[in-house]
Specification:
With about 525 residues, the protein is of the alpha/beta class. It has 17 helices and 24 strands. Strands 1, 2, 5, 6, 7, 8, 22, 23 and 24 form a 9-stranded mixed beta sheet that branches. It has a 9-stranded antiparallel beta sheet with strand order 16-15-14-13-17-12-11-19-20. Strands 3-4 form a two-stranded antiparallel sheet. A hairpin with a 6-residue loop joins strand 3 (about 85) and strand 4 (about 95).
Length: about 525
């Protein structure tokens, strides 16, 4: 077999980019460098992100080529959310990757041992990451230490001239990378240009949350990133690396605008539940780890019997409540499901069966149609990792299903009680809202760090809660299953060796297998994704 001529890859994640918006800016001629990359390589306007459409879990899925799951037993990664809780610790482990404690540095450990990053899979050669913290296996990363990162975060947050700051933050990514290509021996033990580089442009997410993706500043920022991509291409060309480099450009999720910010005052009043806090409220019987329009609720059956705080020092203070318990929770026998559906605009609710194992289980789904009507359905899964299959069963006499797939001629054919794998679900749902949900929801619930109950609005109302605390009044969000939040752009280009053409649909976990194949490398782990070269139209 002839040796592949692609000898290095650059994986670049531009945070928070909707596919439709990105390609419409390309069409208008506003992103000329991305356009050139698109025309000279392969691309998809319909790349499906992971569940939920949040920064850290999706970027982990991109970089490991794995979805989440029971990370102790199956090939998958262990990061279910950006904010989560692990109740196997005493006291429970509370993670918030955006926190000032720099929890972000623990993310590489949180991935678990049953997945590898692309850098670990490639093995030999120099690897680097620039402002990308999911970087197990890299030889040089920037910023080099926690102090520098903290200063960097502070600068982004408090520097008065926002526009100047984001420009600087973007520029640093490409300038640094080109310097690494120019003088590898300043960064690595050997004087060889990196075989794999991981980049993260985070400014687009910051601007989106503040001003929305329709704002001028958001578009100006993308245009600046495009100019930097131009700088990267000409820099690589000048150094003689463009011909053997593959550049992958993608995003972690899209975005939407909510109509308003809700509050949970009535929910707290009705239920008299308080949110757990590791220092301030150890007696809390519940934790909402995050809730924008998609809410993740953890409950603690043990705390309700607590007489005093010292008892919390028991082994295993939290455990997963039974469903019976959630239907009559606490001394007042609250039905948690009913109360969650009383939260303004909450339309969807998902939870796992108690008897689930990594190999077999059920996820229950409900959609509120009106005060008196719920549509119910369930997902059943069997197998794990790449071999997992699921079926989507609905129980409504009117033949309606929770995700409204019944309205679509292609998708409805898959609602026949048979089990399907991830790529069959991709084919069935890649053009719809809640794409891939029958597969992705099962994987998410398999992770013991996931919540007991997940609720969702349709993106009209957002709650902006992280670990029980309301964070802002921002209405620009991402997380829900709607296409504007779940579909990201993908371009793989650079070297002339990369085939040209469009891929009609794909998933973010197809990116790593494609890059490995371009490099002529084996994953050494059973990846779930496909080599997209074979999916060109
Ligand atoms: Zn993001």
């Amino acid at each position: 077999m002839p040796k592949s001529k692609v000898n290095r890859v650059i994986l670049c994640i531009i945070d928070d980019v909707r596919s439709d918006q990105f390609f419409s800016l390309i069409k208008k001629g506003l992103l000329p460098n991305c356009k050139k990359l698109m025309e000279s390589g392969m691309y998809s306007t319909n790349c499906i992100t992971d569940f939920p459409a949040l920064t850290y879990p999706t970027q982990v899925s991109i970089i490991t080529g794995a979805h989440t799951g029971d990370y102790r037993y199956e090939v998958c990664h262990g990061v279910p959310l950006s904010n989560w809780m692990d109740r196997n610790y005493n006291p429970p482990l509370v993670r918030n990757y955006g926190s000032k404690n720099l929890d972000i540095y623990k993310i590489n450990e949180d991935l678990g041992d049953n997945c590898k990053t692309i850098c670990e899979m490639i093995q030999e050669g120099n690897k680097t990451s620039i402002i990308q913290f999911i970087n197990r296996g890299v030889d040089y990363y920037f910023p080099e230490n926690k102090l520098k990162l903290a200063l960097y975060y502070l600068m982004i947050k408090y520097y008065p001239k926002f526009r100047t700051t984001i420009k600087y933050v973007n520029t640093i990514v490409i300038k640094k990378l080109l310097d690494i290509f120019r003088r590898p021996n300043h960064y690595f033990e050997t004087n060889e240009a990196p075989i794999c580089s991981l980049l993260w442009f985070l400014t687009s997410d910051m601007v989106m949350h503040k001003f929305g993706s329709e704002s001028l500043l958001y578009k100006i920022n993308l245009m600046q990133i495009d100019r930097l991509m131009g700088l990267l291409i000409s820099g690589l060309k000048e150094l003689g690396y463009l011909d053997d480099t593959a550049i992958a450009l993608t995003s972690d999720h899209g975005n939407y605008r909510a109509q308003g910010v809700g509050n949970l005052d009535l929910f707290y009043k009705h239920t008299r539940l308080s949110n757990y806090h590791p220092r301030k409220n150890q007696k809390g019987m519940m934790n909402i780890s995050e809730f924008a329009s998609l809410g993740f609720f953890y409950f603690n059956p043990k705390n309700m019997n607590l007489q005093n705080a010292s008892k919390i020092k028991d082994d295993n203070p939290w455990f997963r409540p039974s469903l019976e318990f959630l239907e009559a929770f606490g001394t007042r026998k609250i039905n948690v499901f009913n109360e969650l559906f009383r939260i303004k605009s909450v339309k969807l609710l998902y939870y796992a069966a108690e008897t689930n194992t990594p190999q077999k289980g059920q996820i229950f789904l409900q959609r509120k149609v009106n005060a008196n009507k719920l549509i119910r359905g369930r997902l059943e899964y069997r197998g794990s990792g790449e071999n997992m299959q699921t079926r989507y069963v609905f129980e409504d006499s009117t033949q309606q299903d929770v995700f409204k797939y019944y309205k679509n001629a292609t998708a409805v054919k898959y609602l026949n009680g048979k089990f399907y794998g991830i790529d069959e679900w991709l084919k069935a749902t890649s053009h719809l809202d809640f794409p891939l949900y029958p597969d992705l929801l099962c994987r998410h619930f398999k992770n013991p760090r996931s919540a007991d109950i997940i609720v969702s609005t349709e993106g009209d109302i957002t709650y902006n809660i992280e670990q029980g605390k309301k964070k802002s009044n921002q209405v620009f969000k991402h997380d829900i299953g709607a296409r504007r939040s779940s579909i990201v752009p993908l371009i793989i280009s650079g070297s002339n060796e990369i085939p040209k053409g469009e891929i009609s649909y794909c998933k973010i976990t197809d990116i790593i297998p494609t890059l490995l194949s371009l490099l002529g490398k084996k994953a050494q782990i059973n990846l779930i994704g496909n080599n997209l070269k074979n999916n060109l139209i």
